[in-house]
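User: Some background: our group keeps a shared notebook of sequences we're curious about, and every so often someone picks one and asks for a predicted structure to add to the entry. Today it's my turn. The entry only has the sequence so far, pasted here. Could you supply the structure so I can complete it?
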Amino acid sequence: MNTFPKYAPIPRASEITGLGRSTLYKLAGEGKIKLIKAGGRSLVDIEHALAWMQTLPTAQIAPSNRPALRRPMIKLRTPSSGRP
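Assistant: Of course. Here's the predicted structure to add to the notebook entry:
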């Protein structure tokens, strides 16, 4: 079970949520997630941000119709005897 801090600075909140710095500020500006100010620092209310993320719809990913890529075999060179 993951235990997260109640509040986290933007870089740490980005790691926890998977959202980028700009996205976190944008969501805060739209009132979707809560930020607090502690001195000059903006701290994300992690519980609030994760709760908001729970309201997002599940991604619907369609299967690809593209054929799988075939990668060429790479031959490794073996050192020859007598060569430096």
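Suggested note for the entry: Residues 7-54 form one domain. DSSP finds three helices and three strands in the chain.
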